[in-house]
Structure formats: structure tokens, C-alpha cells
Amino acid sequence: MTLSDSPKFLVTGGAGFIGSNLVLSLQEKSPNARLTVIDDFRSGDYKNLVGYRGDFVAQDLAKLNWREQFGDEEFDAIFHLGSITDTTLHDQFVQVHDNVESFRRLLNFARPSKTRIIFASSASIYGPATEASVEANGAAPANIYAFSKTIGLLSGCDISTFMARARDTKACRPAWFIICRNR
What predicted TM-score, i.e. pTM, was given to this entire model? Predict the structure, then answer.
């Protein structure tokens, strides 16, 4: 990805702990960048954004009409950190619906322009571990939050195939890949 002198970044969940630190770091390291944060303050806090100078959209990602909000605007990258992260939330429908639908809507917006998406997942998608986990072991979600993140990663994959063969990595491969790099 070649960035312009004034890259455009969007961060969902930008008022959360990780999101706000990312936003403030992007603002510092790329002072000419155009930054947009989307957050509904379900778990984020405005205090985390003190000093932020970019655009802010207060919106529920599961209901956001991206085309209506942004039109044909294109971003250099979208950092998707927004989700319901409360592992004690017992309403499974709300957690799965909001996390999966949010990601689905974002993908539908980003796909035509091939915008890069950096997606925050969770190690809990691999289940409780007694030793180091590897992706080849497949998914074994530890809780409903992990399940919702697993479904997001496996977007486009048939759910019954996923559930029937969660540990068979050849049965269902994610349509999106996450690349991590150590500094």
C-alpha cells in the first residue's frame, strides 16, 4: 500500500483503550493524516480521546449505513477495533449480531474500493490453551465473544461447515487474513 502525504484512516472503536491509543499514535506519527473515529461509547470513553483533532462519528456499527454516512469516500485503511467485548454479556444474540453484522457492513463498504482492513480478533477463538496455540489447530471459541470474532474471520464460510469441522483448517478458510509483525 502506497500512502499519500495525507492518508485517510478510519478507526472503529476509537474511543476504547486500544482504539484511542492507536488514533492518538496515528495523529502523532502522521500529522497530515485525515482521521475518522466511529464509536458508540458502549465501552469507550470520551476522555480517551482528549487531544484528538479528527472527525468523529457517534454511531452503532451494527446499524451504520456506510454508504449513507461516507458516500463514495475512500480510506487508505480501516482499523476495525469496535465490537462488544464484554465476555460476561449473556445475551448471545446481541453479541453475535452486533459483532458479525458490524464486520459484514464494514466489509461491504470496503470491498468495492479494496480498502485494507486491519481487524482486531481475540486469542480466545482458539479456546482455552494449556500450551502455545497455532492457527493450524483451528477454532474452538471459548465464549460467545470469541464465537462472534470467529464468525467474522470466517465471513463467507458456511456456518454449518464451520461448526461441524471447527478443527479442520481445510474445511473452511477465512476470506480475510491478519498479518502481525513484531517491531
Answer: 0.75
